[in-house]
Structure to design on (316 residues):
């Protein structure tokens, strides 16, 4: 029996090697919360990028999670920058490395949604204008989690945060989640993609592809936050999968203007996704119904964009 189990384990291990690199560049001992999606995002990004990589990290959860100097759980160089400067810092790193003749070093900005969609969007737009050969990763946990769970431009409608408290309906988050992928597509950079910690093979494939493309690349990674979302830490992967089937998040990539949707799951009720998270427990069914209609409409729009871009590709 033991031999049988050991053989099965070895077979699974060999299969995993085919899709996910075995080398670990994130050691045990990070200071993140239990079940943190951002730690999974970092782990998979580094597995794809490899040791020949420099990270630029602004004020965010990952500014503290590596540990207190001189300790760190990451085995690659890290540059810590102010909240708003990720785009500028990766431009500077790229320029300096190029002058030194080290063009093969991967330069990656790794920032949260607050430091990307809000306070860092100006510097990100600047690096998009310059089209520097860098990769910008936005790990999306839908709020300013490190500084106290405040609302960000990526916070979805109806969500509780410390700045959109539950009590009166007027206090709930009313603005729709900002689509950073669409904003970056509008900049006409070479590669834009979305990914999820629930699908590491897809995430790693997209990082690998991005690092082969010259110019700015942008990847938004859906990263559940058990603390800020008031959810069971063991449900991170399940909830991330349900976000896709409920159409609260989508997996796609746009390369040179051509869109491809990577996954089209069978539709599941939005309520099943929302009510697993305490931040949405207060939402009445009427608001959920309205939000579900809006998300369904966004999904139809995404399908239409894919169809149009594929038609243009065939004409070429």
């Amino acid at each position: 029996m033991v031999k049988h189990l050991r053989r099965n384990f070895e077979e699974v291990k060999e299969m995993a090697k085919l899709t996910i690199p075995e080398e670990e560049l994130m050691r045990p001992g990070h200071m993140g919360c239990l079940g943190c999606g951002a730690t999974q995002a970092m782990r998979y990004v580094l597995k794809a990028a490899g040791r020949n990589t420099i990270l630029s990290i602004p004020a965010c959860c990952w500014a503290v999670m590596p540990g207190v100097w001189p300790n760190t759980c990451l085995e690659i160089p890290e540059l810590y920058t102010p909240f708003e400067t990720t785009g500028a810092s990766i431009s500077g790193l790229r320029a300096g490395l190029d002058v030194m003749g080290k063009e093969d070093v991967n330069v990656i900005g790794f920032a949260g949604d607050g430091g990307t969609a809000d306070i860092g969007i100006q510097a990100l737009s600047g690096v998009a204008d310059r089209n520097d050969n860098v990769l910008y990763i936005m790990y999306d946990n839908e709020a300013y989690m490190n500084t106290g769970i405040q609302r960000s431009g990526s916070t979805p409608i109806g969500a509780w945060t410390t700045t959109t408290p539950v009590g009166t309906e007027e206090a709930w988050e009313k603005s729709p989640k900002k689509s950073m992928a669409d904003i970056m597509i509008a900049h006409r950079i070479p590669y834009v993609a979305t990914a999820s910690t629930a699908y590491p093979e897809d995430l790693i494939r997209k990082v690998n592809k991005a690092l082969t493309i010259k110019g700015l690349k942008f990847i938004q990674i859906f990263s559940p936050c058990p603390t800020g979302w008031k959810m069971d830490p063991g449900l991170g992967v399940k909830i991330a999968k349900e976000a896709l089937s409920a159409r609260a998040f989508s997996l796609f990539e746009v390369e040179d203007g051509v869109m491809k949707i990577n996954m089209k799951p069978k539709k599941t009720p939005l309520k099943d996704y929302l009510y697993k998270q305490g931040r949405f427990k207060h939402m009445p069914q009427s608001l959920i119904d309205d939000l579900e209609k809006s998300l369904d409409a966004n999904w139809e729009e995404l399908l239409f964009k894919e169809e149009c871009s594929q038609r243009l590709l065939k004409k070429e």
